[in-house]
Amino acid sequence: MRVYSSHKELLKSLGNNKSIGLVPTMGSLHKGHLSLIQRAVRENKEVIISIYVNPTQFNDKEDLKKYPRNLDNDLKLLKDINNVLVYTPSDSDLYGQDEKSKKYNFGDFMNIMEGKQRPDHFDGVATIVEKLFKIFTPDNAYFGEKDFQQLILIKSLAEKLNPDLNVVGCKTIREKDGLAMSSRNKLLSKKERESAGEIIKLLLKAKEMNSSFNYRKIKNEVDRHINSIEGITLEYFEIIDLSKFINISEKRAFIACKVGNVRLIDNISL
Ligand code: AMP
């Protein structure tokens, strides 16, 4: 593992003509991130892991302040992996003096759920990922299905920027009780962590009901269940037929909720 805070220095140390994998992260690494990294290491000669809490994708500045950061521990987790270059930039190495998002229009699928609840969030995500793609010109870039809308957004961004860039979607890695791993889980109290374990149960319940019941009935059941769990408030629950928005014939259930003050999202295929 080698660590760089300057993208120019990192670029100098890349071998020529090697396949490059990119794994963008915001750090506080967990096994979900590590699954992306391990796959990237298997499929590329060199792997760049960026660790950067991107300010422009936080619509809520308090959320940005609270976001967990733990670079020392992240580097410990990565230290024994060969051919890994870790990019830990300052804001100015990526944004210069102009810390602003570009404006994008990614269509209707990006205007619902996360796009609706977090105004400007996807503009910030696309801005930073476009910068990383342009700087490092990877052959493959790895993103998690846990952030499913984001994955679709990145695929569409990559198609526009460079059709040769392969965006790889990776399965959601979960804790023993099914809670999707997330850096934000570190912010949960013991009691909140217990309640958060119910989120996957709601999604699985929706999956079970999907074959026999309509959306309204499933939604009522999810509302009923969530109201019975201490400390959780629902932000949205949706069942989406993806073919109505994008070229994927699959139905998925999506959820966002607050557990205490911690906002968590998850989704599963139905
Ligand atoms: P983040 O650091 O939260 O921005 O995540 C960096 C990348 O890791 C994104 O592509 C996420 O979708 C992915 N990721 C986060 N959590 C998980 C998880 N539990 N399983 C698989 N991928 C994940």
CATH class of the largest domain: Alpha Beta
How many domain units? 2
Largest sheet: 6 strands, parallel
Main sheet: strand order = 1-4-3-2-5-6
- Taking all residues together, what is the mean pLDDT? 96
The helicity comes to 25-40%
From the coordinates shown, what is the CATH architecture of the largest domain? 3-Layer(aba) Sandwich
Query: What are the low-pLDDT stretches, counting only 5+ consecutive residues below 50?
Result: none
The percentage of residues in β strands lies in 15-25%
The secondary structure category is alpha/beta
Q: What is the CATH superfamily label of the largest domain?
A: HUPs
Distance between the termini: 39 Å
Q: Which ligands, by name, code or SMILES, are bound?
A: adenosine monophosphate
> Judging from the principal axes of the Cα atoms, what is the shape?
globular
H/E element sequence: EHEHEHHEHHHEHEHHHEEE
CATH topology of the largest domain: Rossmann fold
* Count of extended strands: 9
Q: What's the number of helices?
A: 11
Q: Could you state the oligomeric state of the chains shown?
A: single chain
Radius of gyration: 19 Å
